Amino acid sequence: MKLRAPSIITLLLLFTLATAFAVETPRIVPRVQEVPKSEREVFASIKHFFTDSTLSNFQLVSADEHTHTIVAKQTALDDLTWSNWAFCETGPVQMIYKLEDGTAVVTVKLDKATPHSTLASVSADFQGRYALGGNQNTVACKSKFALEDQILAAAGAAPGK
Questions:
Q1: Which of 70, 92, 122, 123 could connect to 148 by a Cys-Cys bridge, CB 3.0–4.6 Å?
Q2: Surface-to-core class of residue 8, CB atoms within 10 Å of its CB (0-12 exposed, 13-18 middle, 19+ buried)
């Protein structure tokens, strides 16, 4: 039996089908870093960050000490903060719309790494509301990871990791 090399048409067809079924990268990607403190200390630091109005404008949604999970939300984000934290992909028509309101929902999950360190996972879900005249459009946006890095720093993580 003689084997022959695949034709260029077969290769192009396979390439086209492969890209058609390619998986899109997720919109919400957690930032994970080890913090050289116990889970209890990191939990308290992050909870304090979200509840102290001098540190952030977040509202604490939930803080579960048993699962070591904290959820916080911030609305009415200004344009500068929004542009530092998130990027929104819009269609060609919506590109002329103006950001009316932005919402960030942050979830922090802590796990024990070693007896004296904690693995902190921070993910942010951004939603932008854009408007032009009477038309409004809510867009799911992607993080630039500045907010997650800020929260990790508040927890005691080393900067730049």
A1: 122
A2: exposed
